[in-house]
Amino acid sequence: MTEPNDPLGVVIGTREIYDTLVSVRDDVRSLVQDREDIDADITELKKEVRELQRFRHAYPLTALGVIITSVTALLKSTGTV
Questions:
Q1: Which among 16, 17, 45, 60 is placed 20 to 30 Å from 76, CA to CA?
Q2: pTM of this prediction?
Q3: Whole-Å CA distances, 33 to 21, 22, 25, 28, 38
């Protein structure tokens, strides 16, 4: 099947080209699906970070309130207050 004037003797047929294109198409579809999954994960992570940032000042204040309440209860139980 090689042509006499072809110095390398390589011939690529339409079937090989078609098979390669189908393979590339499948790879691109897989990459698109991966990208969509990654985008969904990033969106979810952004949402979680926003929720955590909303309460980042509330946690120390809550801990401070618990400490003050505990110290007050301790002082009341010992009779110093």
A1: 60
A2: 0.51
A3: 18, 17, 12, 9, 9
